[in-house]
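Here is a protein:
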Amino acid sequence: MANMDDGPPSSVSKADRLKLLRAHQTAWKNLTWTKKSVVSYNPIASLWKCLGGVLGSAYDRSLRFIQVPSVFRGIEEKEWAVEDIGFRVGNFTMDPSQDLLVVLDTETYVDHLPLECYENHRADIPHSPADVYRLHLRSLSDGKPHPFVSREFVSYKPLPDALGFRYTVEVFSSHLALLSHSFEYGDVMNELVIWNWMTGNVEKVWKFHYAHRFVGQN
């Protein structure tokens, strides 16, 4: 109901839960807020995301997060930060429901790309060390490596002329997607790579023209 799941047993009765749900729906329908919070804005923070009720921002090597409160759902406001992730943040995304933070590191590394990850997907990726970017898989709560991953990061070999590209990172359940798309129109190849972020294995690679954004989980 209302795209929400019934929570675990608690001291809140079913009747009270129904009242809270109806109040929540009414508040959204009429756009009436129960509380107003002012979030300080860092004018030099160029990366912002609001996903799963968490507002995140990044600047240089640090990330800041604010859990958006909800009176009806019993969610308290909370603020925390990862002061130094260990590299300059190229982009990031998160999934609070999985305590997952994915951070793109666009400094180049020489990584060995496992053959089984790219077999039958990318003929142009060598079976030897290559200059690559890294997508680090961290816990949103503390910035440490996520406990469910078999690898602390997955590697991505950027397309030729990578300096003319921007990168969009999204998480859908167990899937991690990186969209590499050019600033320019025309005969420019873009690329979408999908991993299973828990195993680190590549599941799909597409190359195509005129990529703009993700449209949904499916």
